[in-house]
């Protein structure tokens, strides 16, 4: 029985990992007649907006490190901003090749090696991810414009209700201990695997969760920082459009990028899922008017977005070689003895 469970778990993990690349291969095969146009579009790319989009990764990482510092302070961990920005960059590197960017959580172990509490570091990483999901959900609300153009009023109302309910739920997790307890005792115990629950108990994450809450001040500050970092991200993505010599209405661009970001969490490096969202939205002339995007041009935009993601690997590798995980045996943080 145990052997079968391990085998089924292994098959499930690899199915999820290969689903995105398989979807990408199908999309490329289905649009093989457009690949030449995609290549020609990339050869004519304008370099100034592309280089600017690449360089803007640095303020993005600094803002993320600042938000992480705000969260950790509520958990009693005072960590220098520069160190957190450095570890955040390492976390982005480690998560770049994993579905859902799960490797991003490994940055908590860097804090543990520096003598900070691992339970607090893990919880801060979860809350940090909740901020991103909350803001992404809010930005995805602008996708109602697309639904209004393409769907019925009933579909629009149902989608709006589900999105608002999800946002209210995330806020309650950040601010309400009662809701967190209900989620842990009535829901997560049946969803989270037993092995993961044992790790969480081992590092006493629940003890931090019981007393942790974000004050309204820190919630507002964290949200403001998130808005700045998201503005940087969306500006970087927008720069890719003039780099291709194209235009796109802002009311279509924002929800498209938000939905693409959510879909990219489902596969390694967003492969397949990113292209599916872009083709589904930008391939509708009524939405992109007055510009018309061919499928080849959409694939070239996806390729540039993929290159921005690969920037995390290119820049993160030397940082990881400078500070690999597990190379510090003696803690140097505030809890070192």
Question: Short description, anyone?
Answer:
It is built from 17 helices and no strands. It has 337 residues and is mainly α. The protein has one domain.
Question: How are the SSEs ordered, and which strands pair?
Answer:
Layout: H1 2-30, H2 35-43, H3 47-55, H4 57-74, H5 81-95, H6 107-113, H7 118-140, H8 144-150, H9 153-175, H10 177-191, H11 194-202, H12 205-211, H13 216-243, H14 250-264, H15 273-282, H16 285-288, H17 295-322
Task: Please tally the β strands and state the result.
Answer: 0
Structural class: mainly alpha
Number of domain modules: 1
Strand content range: under 5%
Helix content: over 70%
Which radius of gyration do the C-alpha atoms yield? 21 Å
Mean pLDDT: 77
The low-pLDDT segments are none
- What does the overall shape look like? globular
Distance between the termini: 45 Å
Biggest β-sheet description: none
What series of H and E elements makes up the topology? HHHHHHHHHHHHHHHHH
- Output the number of helix runs: 17
Description:
The chain is mainly α and 337 residues long. The protein has one domain (46-176, 213-322). The protein has 17 helices and no strands. The protein has helices at 2-30, 35-43, 47-55, 57-74, 81-95, 107-113, 118-140, 144-150, 153-175, 177-191, 194-202, 205-211, 216-243, 250-264, 273-282, 285-288, 295-322. It is globular, with a radius of gyration of 21 Å. The termini are far apart. The mean pLDDT is 77.
What brief labels describe this structure?
337 residues; 17 helices; globular; mainly alpha
């Amino acid at each position: 029985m145990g052997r079968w469970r391990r085998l089924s778990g292994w098959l499930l993990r690899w199915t999820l990992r290969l689903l995105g690349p398989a979807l990408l291969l199908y999309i490329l095969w289905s649009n093989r007649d457009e690949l030449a146009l995609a290549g020609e579009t990339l050869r004519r790319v304008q370099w100034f907006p592309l280089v600017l989009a690449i360089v803007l990764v640095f303020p993005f990482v600094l803002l993320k490190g600042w938000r992480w510092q705000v969260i950790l302070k509520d958990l009693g961990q005072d960590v220098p901003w520069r160190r957190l920005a450095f570890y955040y960059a390492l976390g982005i590197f480690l998560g770049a090749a994993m579905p859902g960017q799960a490797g991003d959580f490994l940055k908590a172990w860097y804090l543990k090696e520096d003598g900070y509490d691992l339970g607090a570091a893990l919880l801060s990483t979860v809350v940090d991810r909740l901020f991103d999901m909350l803001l992404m959900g809010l930005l995805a609300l602008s996708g109602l414009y697309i639904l209004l153009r393409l769907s019925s009023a009933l579909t629009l109302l149902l989608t709006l209700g589900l999105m608002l309910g999800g946002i209210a739920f995330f806020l309650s997790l950040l601010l309400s201990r009662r809701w967190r307890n209900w989620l842990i005792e009535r829901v997560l115990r049946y969803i989270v695997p037993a092995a993961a629950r044992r790790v969480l108990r081992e590092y006493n994450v629940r003890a931090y969760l019981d007393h942790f809450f974000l004050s309204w001040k820190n919630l507002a500050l964290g949200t403001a920082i998130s808005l700045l970092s998201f503005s940087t991200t969306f500006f970087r993505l927008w720069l890719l459009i003039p780099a291709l010599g194209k235009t796109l209405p802002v009311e279509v661009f924002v929800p498209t990028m938000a939905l693409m970001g959510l879909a990219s969490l489902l596969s390694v490096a967003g492969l397949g899922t990113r292209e599916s969202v872009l083709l589904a939205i930008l391939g509708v002339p009524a939405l992109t008017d007055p510009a018309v995007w061919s499928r080849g041009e959409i694939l070239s935009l996806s390729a540039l977005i993929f290159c921005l993601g690969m920037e995390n690997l290119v820049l993160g590798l030397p940082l990881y070689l400078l500070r690999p995980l597990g190379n510090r045996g003696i803690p140097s943080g505030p809890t070192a003895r």
